[in-house]
């Protein structure tokens, strides 16, 4: 039995830059990533995405400005959990990013994304995000630093069958 857990991952973007956060504790510590976390029981995915963005870097976004651009599924050798990550992008948002207990936010130019300090999978699917393509990816990790196998595909729509 595989336990499926839904997570959010939000990227704020403008013409020149993308906002990433350095995770200061817990899962993915010391890696740059988008903002997000577990969807709580009975919580809607979009509400969770808005909540985590606010909690982690004090930025506000409206649900209708979050565009679902991807779905990533992660499994780890020997673990019965599948992380089902819903990826969102937004170009309309309010606030100035602030450091919190969980994240240190920073804007990055598109040609200076710190892939060497990110999850290994990020550099495999970021090209889709950067080209505004929708994507689905599945990654099977051994530990946190080795991908045993993966697939990625471009999608025509994010609708679920
Ligand atoms: C394995 N390869 C991966 N590549 C890219 N991104 C990944 C990822 N694996 C997890 N993520 C994201 O990392 C965050 C974890 O969130 P995480 O800290 O566990 O959640 P949450 O804040 O609810 O936890 P606590 O409340 O601290 O337990 C969450 O956005 C999730 O989408």
Describe the overall structure.
With 161 residues, this protein is mainly β. The protein has a single domain, classed as Nucleoside Triphosphate Pyrophosphohydrolase (Alpha-Beta Complex). Helix content is 14%, strand content 41%. The chain contains two helices and eight strands; from the N terminus they run βββαβββαββ. The chain has helices spanning 45-57, 122-130, and strands spanning 3-13, 17-23, 32-33, 67-76, 81-90, 103-109, 134-142, 146-155. Strands 1, 2, 3, 4, 5, 6, 7 and 8 form an eight-stranded mixed beta sheet that branches. A hairpin with a 3-residue loop joins strand 1 and strand 2. The chain is globular and about 40 Å long. The two termini are 22 Å apart. The mean pLDDT is 97. It binds N6-Methyladenosine 5'-triphosphate (N6E). N6-Methyladenosine 5'-triphosphate binds at residues 7-9, 26-28, 33, 36-38, 74, 83, 85, 119, 121-122. Belongs to the Nudix hydrolase family. Monomer.
Output the helix-strand order. EEEHEEEHEE
CATH-derived topology: Nucleoside Triphosphate Pyrophosphohydrolase
Number of domains: 1
> Over all CA atoms, what is the radius of gyration?
15 Å
Helix content: 10-25%
Note the gap between the termini.
Answer: 22 Å
Distinct ligands, ions and cofactors found in the model: N6-Methyladenosine 5'-triphosphate
Tell me the name of the CATH class.
Alpha Beta
> What would you give as the CATH superfamily?
Nucleoside Triphosphate Pyrophosphohydrolase
Low-confidence stretches: none
* Biggest beta sheet attributes: 8 strands, mixed
Q: What's the helix count?
A: 2
DSSP strand (E) fraction?
A: 35-45%
Protein structure class:
mainly beta
What is the number of beta strands?
8
Shape: globular
Mean of residue pLDDT values: 97
